[in-house]
Amino acid sequence: MAETFKNFIGGEWTDAASGKRFENRNPANRDELVGTHPDSDAGDIERAVAAAAKAFRSWRLVPAPKRAELLYRTGELLAQHKEDLAQLMTREMGKVLAETRGDVQEGIDTAFYAAGEGRRMYGETTNAEMPNKFAMSIRLPIGVCGLITPWNFPMAIPTWKMFPALVCGNAVVLKPASDTPATAARLVGILAEAGFPPGTVNLVTGGGGRVGTPLVEHSSVRLVSFTGSSEVGRAIAATCGQKLKLCSLELGGKNAQIVMDDADLDLAVDGALWGAFGTTGQRCTATSRIILHEAIAATFTERLVARARKLRVGDGLEPGSEVGPLVNEGQRESVHGYVEIGKKEGAKLLMGGKPATGGALDRGWFYEPTVFGGVTPSMCIAQEEIFGPVVSLITVKSFEEAIQVANGTPYGLSSSIYTRDVNRAHVAIRDIEAGITYVNGPTIGAEVHLPFGGVKDTGNGHRESGKQVLDVFSEWKSVYVDYSGRLQKAQIDEVKIQ
Ligand code: NAD
Questions:
Q1: What is the pLDDT of residues 324-355, one digit of tens each?
Q2: Which of 24, 209, 363, 469 gets the highest tally of CB atoms within 10 A of its CB?
């Protein structure tokens, strides 16, 4: 049954002031309307930011361990609702249930991890250079944070941003992707149930231009944290630069798995299947290129294609499904467009390359797992993010060439190498230009207590998750307490050693 969802502003569930709504349909079955959501605009953002700014005045004064207690409660509630959240997420976004359960689990893990920071969030005490003077640095909240998220991790990504932001004492306005607003609404409802005071957590749904842009531009929003495409990230960074706002960006990837001549090939095939076709290839860390040493290229390719042919494409709610649909029609057109480009560029289509159809599949945006062989590093399909179940195989002659090819794109999010040679593994860890390197594991599978993010066009130097995310959501203040009772001039007064 389709639900009528609302915005959440200042502790109240509310419609867009215009009364407009948009539909959220199941990508595995477009006849199913999951729900309708407020199609908001700048006026709704204005109200949400005002509510957040008001709430921030008292929220920042709540001791961090007490703020954290609400996150522990949030984690417990998420765990209680894990199954129904996962079902809803599969219905609105398409990935298979095992994966949507994992997505909720990531939110639970993030709740408990961020809550722990309530009793840490360490600053530093150090020595002052003048006598009778005390020096320390502390973290302070920033204010109202605008959070803009994509659809591929409808629970995990909003929690990566909201939970650390809240434990640091900020108030937030979340604008989720229009393909996955239902999971976001449920998450915000759980935060309210956990006891977050009105205005600390706000949700406004609607399009990127009508809702995202006014949120980024609003003068009371001090920080924008964005996860999405590099194209939109660049535009947001330009606005934030103009207005001197803080801005953290997590953007696209073109992740490579290297398979060396000494690799355990069955393990490498397992990793490639999961990395390339998990989440139907719609992960920022998805394996989009596989770089094969020439000595094993033919054997690996044969085994990969044989296994990929057996993958079951289907509705993520069906127990046997391994590869769900793409998120929407536009995404399927975009993926197919890249496949056509690959064929024109001269890459060899080894399998797939078209929408998956027949029976119930005709009702959704399914696409066949697709493997291209004979890809060269400069081809468009080896350079641009496809964000679908399409993987390009590139053959190289040496380890050095493999690293060079892996580094030869504008992106730098995740990477992987399969080898039994510990020396090569360490050189790869050092030399691959990426925020994440896996050894003998696929390019996907980040854990929440390690920093997450990438280099080059994948971001602007920030990291989510881990303790590093605190640097995004708090400002440092250095504090000097002079108890000498006289004016002391640093760098000028001479301190006599007796
Ligand atoms: P997208 O950039 O189209 O949209 C992301 C969000 O930005 C959505 O909420 C959208 O409504 C909003 N938006 C769009 N235009 C906007 C504008 N002008 N101003 C403000 N907000 C705007 O990305 P998507 O299609 O939702 O997600 C896929 C992309 O996200 C891929 O490129 C993927 O690699 C990237 N991604 C990156 C990470 C990471 O951590 N590095 C994680 C997941 C996804």
A1: 999 999 999 999 999 999 999 999 999 999 99
A2: 469
